[in-house]
Amino acid sequence: MMEKKKKTFRCVIRSEECKGCERCVEACPRGVLKMGTKLNLMSFPAVEYAGSGCIGCGGCFYSCPEPGAITIVEEVEE
Ligand code: SF4
Ligand code: SF4
């Protein structure tokens, strides 16, 4: 019998690419993104991932105007 592998997702923010527009925060159905308080090198507050709860829907990725600011990582537990 094949064992079902568990998939989890993680949102990785490249803070130096973020312009702080909050589109991803508004797009996230799980509320796991929020604006951080630290400013990046361009003096924008970068968004932060809560660390868990991402379902990999891609809403943040597709709403972000900055190429490379958001990556969704899929992990498969053996
Ligand atoms: S992929 Fe979906 S659930 Fe995960 S952080 Fe982005 S918008 Fe939220
Ligand atoms: S949508 Fe992109 S640029 Fe805007 S806050 Fe989110 S990560 Fe930053």
What features would you describe in this structure?
This protein has 78 residues and is mainly beta. The chain has one domain: Alpha-Beta Plaits (2-Layer Sandwich). It is built from two helices and four strands; from the N terminus they run βαββαβ. Strand 2 (33-39) and strand 3 (45-49) form a beta hairpin. The model has no long low-confidence stretch (mean pLDDT 95).
What small molecules does the structure contain?
iron/sulfur cluster
Largest sheet: 2 strands, antiparallel
State the domain count.
1
- Strand order in the sheet with the most strands: 1-4
Mean pLDDT: 95
Beta-strand content estimate: 35-45%
Number of strands: 4
Q: What CATH architecture would you give?
A: 2-Layer Sandwich
User: Structural class of the helix and strand makeup?
Assistant: mainly beta
> What is the CA-atom radius of gyration, in angstroms?
14 Å
Shape: elongated
* SSE series: EHEEHE
The number of helical elements comes to 2
Q: Fraction of residues in helices?
A: 10-25%
Which residue ranges are poorly predicted, with pLDDT under 50 across at least 5 consecutive positions?
Answer: none
In the CATH scheme, the class would be: Alpha Beta
CATH fold node name: Alpha-Beta Plaits
| Terminus-to-terminus distance | 15 Å
